[in-house]
Predict the structure.
Amino acid sequence: MSGLLIPAIVLISCVACNNNSERSIKTGTDSVVTIRINPGEARSELINLSYIADRIEYIPLQTNDSIVMGTYLDFHITDDLIFIRDQNCILEFDKNGRFIRKMFTVGNGPEESIARSFAVNESERVVYAFDIHSRKGNIYDFDGRFISTFNKKLCDPNYWINNIAYFRSNIFLSIPVRPGTDYLYSCFDLRNDSITILHQNPNVFTVSQENQAPMIVPSSNSYQVTDSNILFKDMYCDTVFITNKEFRTKPCYIIELGSEKLQWEDFRDHGMFDISSGPPNGYYVESFADTKSYLLLFVQSFKWPELLCIYDKKTGELAISSNREYKTADQQVLMKNDLDHMTSFPPMSKGDGKFYYHDECLYSIIEANEFVDIYRSAAPEVLNSTDYLRRMKTLFAQMDEFSNPVIMKIHLK
């Protein structure tokens, strides 16, 4: 990592990553919240949306011949815009779903980009389109104008990169676990090209594994970036850490799965390097969303049904819902729509199980053919159940199975 300054390395105690963590760890004036999850207590019926939300919106993304979306991969929400990453391009929509522009042409030519990940700086109204494979990227303003190239040594060139995000003049990086990786989360300061390490890699390999190429590289290091902090969780660590705007990091939550936890060594030896004996047992936290009133957790297993866990910060109650069967294609646990009774809400995305949260709202994408089928088969009393649905009748009636997807927006309590 020559040529890069490292002004601060936050040392994370290994104790915080063990199942035997203290029940209440003091961090200044705050205490770490411990949440114990027993997968055996999961109910098969869906959790009602009214448990966490009080209002729903459906945002159809405008469709025309030039913007028929293929595979939507990622999206970012700002106060007035929606950015969708589709086929390595970034599409810009307004908050009502009206198409504005393609941010760039996909390619390696001048001012072209391949966006396998992207970050949004809302305060300066710029987008960082970044190819995590070639480490090349460009910066565009919200009007789609090219600003400059972005070819920085964000981390050790031997490290793989999962995703990037923007945080207070820094590019935040999530880095997957593999041999030779010293840290999993870091920030690259765009002002002085320095790196702040947020979380060391606590997962060790055997001597022989250090020189092997893994068959499977886990990429589920989860995180959440807001204007004021970063929260992150290593896949095999019990602790959700929080980094504030001064780049001080401390434990925030401890998620205890007890004997049901998938241990790092089991995945390493019976999944990452050798899958001959089949997938390992146990659960791990795939992703989370920390809101004002709730902590939502998506708990995954390689063998068992997924879990949606909702922790109520005010009451300390924990609600757990499960898929009825093991699903590898959907990676979703639905919530029952008891607000307008239109369609169930998938709080996590289908492709990678992420939560999309912004300004006390959760977002998810519904395929157009699925939405159209549900809307056309809904009873008249459902379609007229709210003022919002009555206002949207004309727009929804124009949709068909070839339309672009619909973003479902859930207003949290």
User: Anything to note?
Assistant: Residues 285 and 299 are 4 Å apart (CA to CA). The two ends are 46 Å apart (CA to CA). Confidence is low (pLDDT under 50) at residues 1-15, 18-29. The longest strand covers residues 53-60.
